[in-house]
Amino acid sequence: MSFETSFYCYGHKNVLCKHLSTLEFTTDDFLTLKGDCILGIRSTMSLISLPEKLKKIIRTDTTKIIVKIEVDNLIEEVVGYGSSKLELSDKHAIIIRKSSYTCSRTLIIGANKAAIDISRNIVHKMKNPNSKMKVTIQVFPEDNKRSIHA
Q1: Where are the coiled-coil regions (predicted)?
Q2: Residue 40, H or E segment
Q3: What is the spatial order of strands in the sheet that 3-10 belongs to?
Q4: Which of 14, 18, 80, 133 is paired with 150 by a 20 to 30 Å CA distance?
Q5: Which residues of 62-129 form beta strands (DSSP E)?
């Protein structure tokens, strides 16, 4: 059984998506070239606004999480895991991490993709401020194939 929620983000001319270990969506309405992990701005959701039921499942070490990114007819999926160490409390950012680092801005750890791994076709579309991206977070509780992290 899975649970999910969706939100929307918009493009910006400074979208680079070159970061090697993180991918971010932000509620901010601007983006500098230093934000090389950001794929979308003006997000309609932040971690603090995630449904409580979803947060509870995400805060389990064995939860598998799939983030589906859709722009026009292009789709990308990022797979990672939850953790009992996740705060899920930031008001501006949702960050996916390949590493196991956690902070108030982290949604997923142990992800299979970061910004640099996102399709360049999607990145190109998100350089257009008029582009709208749908992001769906699917959580799968108790994925027994995953060992509990340290």
Answers
A1: none
A2: strand 38-40
A3: 3-10, 132-140, 64-71, 74-81
A4: 18
A5: 64-71, 74-81, 93-97, 106-108
Q: pLDDT averaged over consecutive 10-residue blocks of the chain (150 residues)? A: 92 98 98 97 97 95 96 97 97 98 98 98 98 97 56
Number of helices (H), then strands (E), in the chain:
2, 8
| H helix runs in 21-119, sequence order | 52-58
The CATH number assigned to the domain with range 3-140 reads 2.60.120.630
CA distances from 148 to 1, 51, 56, 82, 105 (A): 20, 24, 16, 10, 21
Instruction: Find out whether 137 and 125 touch, Cβ atoms under 8 Å.
Output: no
In which region does residue 9 sit, left (phi positive, over 0), alpha (psi from -120 to 50) or beta (all else)? beta
